[in-house]
Amino acid sequence: MTDDDHMAHSLRLGARGLGATWPNPAVGCVIVNGAVVGRGWTQLGGRPHAEAMALAQAGDAARGATAYVTLEPCAHHGKTPPCAQALIDAGVARVVTALTDPDARVAGRGHAMLRAAGIAVTEGVLHDAARQANAGFLKRITQGLPLVTLKMAATLDGRTATASGESRWITGPQARRAVHALRLTHDAVLVGAGTARADDPDLTVRDMGATRQPVRIVIDAALSHAPDSKLGRSAQLSPVWMLHGPAAAQGARKAWEATGAKLIELPASPHISLRSALQALAARGITRVLCEGGATLAALMVADDLVDRVVLHTAGALIGAEGAPVFGPLRLTQLSDASRWARLSLRALGGDVETIWQRLPA
């Protein structure tokens, strides 16, 4: 097997940690000594790291082996010793990586440590695929923002509800299950106050054997969402963060604090800036956000260039112009101002179709 084959294996392993390792990246590692002798991926909460898991499995077979790691091994002492040193101590002969870690505490130091110890290092194997896999971590480190995936469900004519507001269920059970799988691969699920009040969602992953839940986040400047909602009643079971403004009433704050929710105050005049909200999430370690808000929040996110990917579930139904549109106003005056997107994938989900789009540079 080639370096590409083993790195692809490592990337598949790393993907198992998506949504569960923040603030750390979801890394995969394969150790090969004639055959695969060790495999690992970053564990819940970001540790143990992938290299430590793979080395533990490989044992003495790691000596003289090649380690394939999707991200440069860490070179600093944090809550765990540096993985670069662990690979050196294990006696591996070669390390193959996909990406250099942009974290200032690493940023080439891991590779340098390995080379100084006489280990052969090959960089950049499946670089582009690894960038896609680690896009949330990379964006948080380099831009101070999380990766944002916007999930929308619509009819063939781009409507999300009838004129009366009826929207359950536009898509079928397979598409709805796919949404739960999406939640599982994101650190947090985000909605606006309007969606929270109208739908009273719980935003959890259900019926998939999940061992952890995403952080459930509401942007609600006035803390208008009721503490006795589904989110409030379950805040002690899985985390709820309420992003509110300085004018939120003290009574509402105390009521939400009593549920066990985390309150994060942000400037608001009168609305909370979406960019500042996402920056606050990144500062607290969030790398991947799934936005399940309504048309207004979706349009504001797109207009502010905050959305990286759109997951659109299209149902074979027609509602007509009187129905609610999938996006609110973008206030474009000419076609050249429209944002452009590249399709990453397309698949059938029962009677529905899922397309995933990635924003192209302006």
Q: Can you describe this structure?
A:
- With 362 residues, this protein is α/β, with parallel strands linked by helices.
- The protein has 12 helices and 16 strands.
- It has helices at residues 3-15, 50-58, 83-90, 109-116, 127-133, 135-143, 173-184, 193-199, 230-233, 250-259, 274-283, 295-303, and strands at residues 28-33, 35-41, 66-69, 94-97, 120-122, 147-155, 159-161, 188-192, 215-219, 240-244, 262-265, 288-291, 309-315, 324-325, 341-349, 352-359.
- The chain has a 9-stranded mixed beta sheet.
- Strand 3 (66-69), helix 3 and strand 4 (94-97) form a beta-alpha-beta unit.
- Helix 3 packs parallel to helix 4.
- The longest helix has 13 residues, at 3-15.
- It is globular, with a radius of gyration of 22 Å.
Q: Tags for this entry?
A:
362 residues; alpha/beta; nine-stranded mixed beta sheet; five-stranded mixed beta sheet; 12 helices; 29% helix; 23% strand
In short:
The protein is of the alpha/beta class. Helix content is 29%, strand content 23%. The chain has helices at 3-15, 50-58, 83-90, 109-116, 127-133, 135-143, 173-184, 193-199, 230-233, 250-259, 274-283, 295-303; strands spanning 28-33, 35-41, 66-69, 94-97, 120-122, 147-155, 159-161, 188-192, 215-219, 240-244, 262-265, 288-291, 309-315, 324-325, 341-349, 352-359.
Query: Could you give the count of β-strands?
Result: 16
What is the makeup of the main sheet? 9 strands, mixed
Helical fraction: 25-40%
Assembly state here?
Answer: single chain
Radius of gyration: 22 Å
Strand content: 15-25%
Structural class: alpha/beta
Count helical runs: 12
Cα end-to-end separation = 39 Å
Widest beta sheet: strand line-up = 11-10-9-8-12-6-13-16-15
Q: What is the overall silhouette? A: globular
Low-confidence stretches: none
Helix/strand order = HEEHEHEHEHHEEHEHEHEHEHEHEEEE
- Overall mean pLDDT stands at 94
